[in-house]
Task: inverse folding
């Protein structure tokens, strides 16, 4: 569905994208991750026909993007990182405006608007002014806008940027739903846990170059070799996470402790998790579950990138 | 076939009716409070204007009372009310036409509009369609007042209906022209241009100028009967001027002529609305919302602010949604569009100037001067319009196996336009041939039409040569991404230098000689030779301006100097333009090859940016000889000029070559002047 062949993009002396080759298959959800200035937005703008590559070719649905951009755009849903300041219109009017622009006939537009409002759970806010909502509402409105003409391909630039945890989860669920209904999606984000959960494949960029590319399983495989340190996730009773982290942090051999949504992640050089479990029970922390944890996307990201800004 | 066109037109209208612009306008323009505000304002203007025309003005000026008595109160009142509607519409319609591009741009969602794939025709068509009810509302809203005014006397209701039809058509013309200017420039600028232009057009309508150049608005529909009703010595003149257009001996009724003018304006306005601004998506100007040109890293912040260019890039992305066939043919269509505009202006200008009725009443000396002004403005205007690359020197039109640079189309258009001007002048003289002997002269001496024609031909030939030089100069300097304003500045600078400086030299020498000073003959000869550069010299020498030919020196340069100087200049400039355009075609080929994934050509990479895409250069803006003397090349990425062998900037070597060239040129000039004055 989307192909990048040795694509390069330069801004004066800055090589923002350097010979990137990438392919996204039909129905796939590809995540683009990288530090700031890695070239994610440049790549997404080229995919969305809003920038032309200085070298190489970007193909969308089998066609070079510069050959017939107008026709390709009608089969593309693009969500920019910036929402813009829309004129005074309600959420439903906003969606109808873009539906009309995309060529959705008036006869089916009303139904389509209701469908996408339902999909992104905004039906209750259909008559609110589009500029008056929270960031989460705006992001969901933008996602709805990209869907109103039922495109084959979705390009979503930072859909979870600036969202609170609840809104983030909601957007994540919307993306999962879109993947389930067979959309081809490219999404960029800094929230690696979300990307790990929803993406079929992930491309890691740094200094405009593609440094790693594959499914999360493939990318973490190399890091999953047996080593002296093992990582574990312990799920504890609500409200006891901080206490558990404190206990684990005080144990000998524990090298890192991090709070998770419902538990604590820690790494230890002990042969088993028994010492940690014993310490938690002794401290009267109620352990709900304990499971070993392999390397995560975050580990791959940290290993592959240096974190310097290009 | 007719059915096919009908079906297509119906489909287009249906798609425009379903445009997002219609959705937007429905919400904003046609909301009840706004409609009430518009109608109240309109009613106030109509009442004020009608009262002024019927009560205040006749009290101050008896002529107005005579007009009212001659035409009838009802007719005058209805006409005044409709004129007020026309004035109100002239102010309101351009205001309603803007915001389609700048609104989304400034609010930061034009990228979202562009990526919907909406065609510009549908985007603009929707706005046009949505404004029709607004125009209808304006006219209907004023109708009760016009009716009331008409009932003051026996108003001719057929004329009132025709007046409304004209205002309605005019609103649509204004709307489309504002759209077009908003696309080409900026919508705020377009608004000012249209409001200013409308003001000038209305003043021109009042002026005693022929309808061939002065009929732009429906004003003369009401003005012509009033002028006739005035009576007196001027009545016949005004009736002729305010009536139909007289085109080369053919009288075109006013209604038909205004229809032709408006149809032409709509056709010309439709082209930018469908094609957008001319833009080439070259590196640096191929990103929505961000223009970063090669060398920006070294530039100060304020020099990186490019509001005009950034706007054009953003708008160009929207216009990528035009149909593929338009994309394929846009360059010839744009050239033909400009050509049609200029030829239309030339036809109207010559027709007005050589209207036999006007010729018989205008001193021939004035006609001769006006002829030079009209021909010069048109030719030099064309030289700039076709010469400037408008930041699109890399635009190439593919015709079969050939890649024609934009300059080739521009050259063809310039040649065609020059031919059209020559033909129009000939037609104008033929149409006015019998009237010319009856024309008055300021000196009272008889001037034969043959002499006038010979003088006009010489003037035209001189101006064509000057325009050709300007065309080549502007083309040459604007090939290197020079902005429109700078290119215009260089073109004007060339014309100014060529016309004023040599003429100044001649004037100084003449002045000295006239005052009996001991001006050395060599100085006078040099001044006379240099003065031959100016187009004014051969024109003045061929006229009865005796002082100009009194200083004619010896030798070829003084007798036919203008043609020799400019012949040499045109030859050199043409050679450089050919070289620079060859470079354009070569770079275009290399860019296409690079985009298709071909390997970079062999050679040293650019030392400035490391790119391997370096094209041998045959043209260098600073120096003619440097490409051969130093072996120059240009980087396609950072556009730096490099030495082919090393990939490094030529630096001091280039300066040395430029200095050498200047010395050689000065030496050649010295030899030439010595020869001329020997």
Result:
């Amino acid at each position: 569905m989307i192909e990048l062949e040795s694509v390069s993009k330069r801004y004066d002396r800055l090589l923002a994208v350097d010979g990137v080759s990438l392919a996204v298959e039909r129905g796939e959800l590809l995540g683009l991750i990288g530090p700031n200035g890695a070239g994610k937005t440049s790549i997404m703008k080229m995919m969305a026909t809003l920038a032309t590559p200085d070298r190489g070719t970007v193909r969308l649905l089998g066609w070079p993007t510069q050959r017939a951009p107008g026709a390709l755009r009608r089969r593309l849903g693009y969500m920019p990182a910036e929402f813009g300041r829309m004129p005074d219109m309600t959420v439903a009017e906003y969606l109808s405006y873009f539906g009309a622009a995309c060529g959705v006939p008036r006869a089916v537009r009303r139904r389509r608007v209701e469908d996408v409002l339902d999909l992104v759970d905004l039906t209750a806010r259909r008559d609110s002014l589009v500029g008056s909502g929270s960031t989460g509402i705006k992001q969901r409105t933008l996602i709805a806008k990209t869907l109103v003409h039922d495109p084959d391909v979705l390009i979503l630039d930072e859909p979870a940027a600036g969202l609170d945890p609840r809104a983030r989860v909601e957007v994540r669920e919307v993306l999962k739903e879109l993947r389930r209904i067979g959309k081809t999606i490219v999404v960029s984000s800094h929230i690696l846990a979300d990307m790990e959960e929803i993406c079929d494949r992930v491309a890691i960029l740094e200094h405009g170059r593609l440094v790693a590319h594959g499914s999360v399983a493939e990318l973490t495989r190399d890091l999953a070799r047996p080593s002296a340190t093992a990582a574990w996730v312990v799920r504890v009773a609500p409200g006891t996470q901080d206490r558990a982290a404190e206990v684990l942090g005080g144990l000998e051999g524990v090298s890192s402790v991090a709070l998770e949504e419902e538990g604590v992640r820690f790494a230890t050089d002990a042969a088993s998790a028994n010492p940690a479990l014993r310490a938690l029970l002794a401290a009267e922390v109620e352990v709900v579950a304990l499971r070993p944890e392999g390397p995560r996307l975050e580990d791959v990201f940290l290993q592959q990138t240096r974190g310097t800004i290009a | 076939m007719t059915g096919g066109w009908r079906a297509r037109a119906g489909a287009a209208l249906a798609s425009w009716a379903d445009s997002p612009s219609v959705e937007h306008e429905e919400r904003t323009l046609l909301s009840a409070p706004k409609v009430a505000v518009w109608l109240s304002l309109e009613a106030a203007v109509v009442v004020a204007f009608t009262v002024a025309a019927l009560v205040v003005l006749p009290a101050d000026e008896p002529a107005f009372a005579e007009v009212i008595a001659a035409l009838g109160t009802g007719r005058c009142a209805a006409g005044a009310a409709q004129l007020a509607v026309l004035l109100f519409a002239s102010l309101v319609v351009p205001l309603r036409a803007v915001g389609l591009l700048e609104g989304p741009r400034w609010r930061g969602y034009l990228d979202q509009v562009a990526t919907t794939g909406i065609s510009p025709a549908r985007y603009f068509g929707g706005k046009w369609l949505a404004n029709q009810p607004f125009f209808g509302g304006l006219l209907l809203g004023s109708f009760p007042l016009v009716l009331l005014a008409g009932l003051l006397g026996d108003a001719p209701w057929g004329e009132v209906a025709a007046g409304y039809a004209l205002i309605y058509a005019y609103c649509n013309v204004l709307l489309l022209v504002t759209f077009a200017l908003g696309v080409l420039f900026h919508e705020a600028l377009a608004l000012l241009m249209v409001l200013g232009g409308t003001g000038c057009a209305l003043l021109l309508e009042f002026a005693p100028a022929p309808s061939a150049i002065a009929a732009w608005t429906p004003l003369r529909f009401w003005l012509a009967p009033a002028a006739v009703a005035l009576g007196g010595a001027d009545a016949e003149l005004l009736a002729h001027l305010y009536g139909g257009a007289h085109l080369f001996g053919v009288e075109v009724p006013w209604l038909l002529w205004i229809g032709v003018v408006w149809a032409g304006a709509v056709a010309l306005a439709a082209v930018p609305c469908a094609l957008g601004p001319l833009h080439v998506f070259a590196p640096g100007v191929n990103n929505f919302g961000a223009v970063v040109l090669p060398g920006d890293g070294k530039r100060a912040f304020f020099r990186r602010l490019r509001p005009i260019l950034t706007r054009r890039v953003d708008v160009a992305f929207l216009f990528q949604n035009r149909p593929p066939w338009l994309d394929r043919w846009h360059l010839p269509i744009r050239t033909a569009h400009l050509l049609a505009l200029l030829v239309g202006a030339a036809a109207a200008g010559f027709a007005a100037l050589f209207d036999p009725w006007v010729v018989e009443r205008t001193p021939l000396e004035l006609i001769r001067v006006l002829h030079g002004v009209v021909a010069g403005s048109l030719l030099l205007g064309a030289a700039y319009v076709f010469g400037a690359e408008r930041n699109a020197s890399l635009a190439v039109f593919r015709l079969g196996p050939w890649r024609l640079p934009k300059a080739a189309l521009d050259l063809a258009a310039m040649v065609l336009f020059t031919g059209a001007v020559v033909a129009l002048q000939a037609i104008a003289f033929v149409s006015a041939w019998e009237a010319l002997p009856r024309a008055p002269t300021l000196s009272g001496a008889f001037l034969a039409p043959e002499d006038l024609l010979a003088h006009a031909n010489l003037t035209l030939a001189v101006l064509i040569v000057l325009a050709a030089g300007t065309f080549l100069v502007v083309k040459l300097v604007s090939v290197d991404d020079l902005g429109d304003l700078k290119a215009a500045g260089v073109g004007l600078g060339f014309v100014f230098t060529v016309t004023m400086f040599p003429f100044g030299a001649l004037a100084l020498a003449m002045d000295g000689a006239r005052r009996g000073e001991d001006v050395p003959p060599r100085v006078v000869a040099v001044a006379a030779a240099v003065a031959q550069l100016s187009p004014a010299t051969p024109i003045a020498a061929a006229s009865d301006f005796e002082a100009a030919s009194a200083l004619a020196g010896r030798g070829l340069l003084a007798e036919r100097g203008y043609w020799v100087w400019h012949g040499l200049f045109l030859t050199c400039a043409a050679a450089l333009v050919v070289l620079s355009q060859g470079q354009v075609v070569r770079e275009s080929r290399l860019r296409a090859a690079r985009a298709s994934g071909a390997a970079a050509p062999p050679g040293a990479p650019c030392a400035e940016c490391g790119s391997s895409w370096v094209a041998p250069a045959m043209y260098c803006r600073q120096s003619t000889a440097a490409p051969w003397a130093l072996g120059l090349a240009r980087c396609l990425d950072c556009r730096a000029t490099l030495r082919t062998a090393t990939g490094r900037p030529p630096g001091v070597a280039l300066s040395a070559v430029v200095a050498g060239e200047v010395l050689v040129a000065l030496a050649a000039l010295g030899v030439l002047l010595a020869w001329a004055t020997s």
Remarks:
- Chain A has a mean pLDDT of 84.
